[in-house]
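Thread: Newbie trying to understand structure tokens

Hi all, I'm a second-year student working on a class project, and my supervisor (Dr. K.) asked me to get a predicted structure for one chain before our next meeting. I've only ever worked with sequences, so writing a 3D structure as a token string is new to me. If someone could post the tokens and maybe explain what I'm looking at, I'd be very grateful. Here's the chain:
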Amino acid sequence: MTLIPFDNRDGKIWFDGKLIPWRDANLHVLSHGLHYASVVFEGERVYNGTIFKAREHNERLLNSARILDFEIPYTAEEIDKACYDTVQANGLTDAYVRPVAWRGAEMMGVSAQETKIHLAIATWEWPSYFDPKTKAKGIRLTIAKWRRPAPDTAPCDSKAAGLYMICTLAKHEAERNGYSDALMFDYRGQIAEATGANIFFVKNGVLHTPTPDCFLDGITRRAAMELAQKRGIEIVERAIMPDEMEGFEQCFITGTAAEITPVGEIGPYRFEVGKITRTLMDDFTNMIRG
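---
Reply by user tm_fold:
Sure, no problem. This is what the structure looks like when written as tokens:
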């Protein structure tokens, strides 16, 4: 497969208030965000020309920046419009949207109060995150050696770029070993999430999902829970220990990229792609395409 580099594509990117040619959307090598991870971002999906829960995503973007001690100089409404303008400028109806905000190059060092805050928005076509054939029978996850950090050691409520470094390491190792992704435990050894998605388990008709106290309470996660509630499915948010996986019957992950994806295997544990998982997948598809 020939890869098309993301810095060498046709199209437009919204950059600090205006649409510019894709290849001109650059930042300086001494930008603070590159050196000190003062970067926040969102991942959003466009279905039939509509951005799924755009306002929730863009309000989270603003909040993520505040947690990292900087203020994005646009309102949620302005960012919503900019996202749609970028989608339309690139002629897309089904796509991925990536707003990203970072500290500029005015100061170099840990202290960076006087840096300019930049915001860019890119959109591109992105098919299913996982191979459709693999997804249909449930993807395979390994168990990562990296753990999600404690909330007093990292800004866990922020969708901050720096928090994804260990996710990349975990996913690379998983793929090298023939898996689609990796399950990460938290600092206490409890089940947390996959490298870029929240996780759910099913037992005796009840949904079980980890309490998001050291990782993001995902927007797609909440959408899946709303769909389950409409079906009258009981949901239990709680601490889940790894050895409990032996007793779970079904498993799936949720996220903007993953949508709702069934899991067939996590390390030594096996799961079926059962009725609740299939029902929620269908309900989610109907919601985003309806």
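A couple of things are worth pointing out once you decode it. The helical segments are 32-36, 54-67, 76-89, 132-137, 165-176, 219-230, 275-289. The chain has two domains: 12-124, 132-289. Feel free to ask follow-ups in this thread.
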